[in-house]
Predict the structure.
Amino acid sequence: MLLQREMTAAGYRVRLADTGREVLKRAFQGEPLDLIILDPDLPDADEAHVLEHLLNRVPALPVVVHTYASEYGDVSMDRDGLFFVEKRGSSVERLKQVVHEILIDSHSQRQKKIERQSGYELEPSNR
C-alpha cells in the first residue's frame, strides 16, 4: 500500500480499514483519531453514506477524501471538516501537505480551547 508506506515514512501512525463498515467502526468506537483519509473505493458501502456519517460525527473529525474529482461531483465541497485531494501525479505529496496543515490547525485549536478553559496562556516547549 503506497499511501500507507508514504504516510508512515512521513511520521504518521496509520490505521487501515478495508470496508466502509470498518471505517465507521474505527471513527465511532475505536481509539481516538486525528483525521480520516477516505478512499471511495470501499467494497461494501455507499461512499456518500459513509461520508455523511463521518461528517456528522461528534466531536467533529476532519475527513480528507482522496479521489478523482469526477467521483464526487454531487457532494458539496463547502463543508467544515471536509477536504478533497485529487488523485493524480503528485497527489501523495499534496495529501501529506494537507494532512500536515489540518493537524497543525487542529492542534492550535485544541491549545486555544485549553487556554480559554484554564485562563492561562500556554507557551510552546523549546525541547
